[in-house]
Amino acid sequence: MITGGCLCGAVRYVSRLAPRDAGYCHCRICRRVSGAPVSVWASFPVEAFCYTQGAPDIFKSSGHGQREFCGACGSQLAFRDTTNGESVDVNIGTLDKPGQIKPESHIWTESQLEWFEITDGLPRHKQDIPTSDEV
Ligand SMILES: [Zn+2]
Ligand SMILES: [Zn+2]
Predict the structure, then answer these.
(1) How confident is the model at residue 135, as a pLDDT?
(2) How confident is the model at residue 132 (pLDDT cuts 50, 70, 90)?
(3) Which residues neighbour ligand 1 (ion) by CB within 5 Å?
(4) What domains lie within the chain, and their CATH numbers?
C-alpha cells in the first residue's frame, strides 16, 4: 500500500499497486499549478488508486485533463487524464514516503526553464513519453 495526502490532512489517498512510471514534468501547466519549476509525478493504475479520506476539489486544466487538490490547504495531489482514464499521476511530494519512488525520465523539456539544469542521465522527452506505436 502506498499512501499519501495533503498538507492539512483533510484529503488522503492510497494506491494498492506500485506506480507504472514516474518522472519529472517541465510543462507550463504543472509549473503554474504547483508554483515550482518542475513537478515530479508517479503514475498509478486508476483501478488501484482511491481517496480514503475527504475528497479533492477539481480544476479542469485542459481539454483532456483535470487537477485534483485539497480545497482547504491547496495541496496539488494529482493529475488525471479524463479521456483515457488508465492512470492517475500523483505528485510525489504528497506521498507519505516520497523517497521510495524514483523519477525515471523528464517530459516536456521543450518548456524547461532556461536556468534549470538537468544533471542526471535520465531519458529526456521534448513532449510526453512516446507511446509504443509512435516509437
Ligand atoms: Zn489539505
Ligand atoms: Zn506537466
Answers:
(1) 40
(2) low
(3) 6, 8, 10, 70, 72-73
(4) 2-111 (2.170.150.70)
Distance (Å, rounded) from C-alpha 86 to C-alpha 64? 13
Model confidence over 23-46: pLDDT tens digits? Answer: 999 999 999 999 999 999 999 999
Residue 90: closest CA among 30, 132, 26, 28: 30
Are 108 and 27 in contact, with CB atoms under 8 Å apart?
yes
Cβ distance 91 to 74 under 8 Å?
A: no
What confidence tens digit (pLDDT) does each residue in 62-105 have? 888 999 999 999 999 999 998 878 999 999 999 999 999 999 99
> CA dist 117 to 13, 26, 34, 37, 109, Å?
32, 12, 19, 11, 11
Q: Map residue 16 onto helix, strand or coil.
A: coil
Looking at the CA of 79, name the nearest ligand: 2
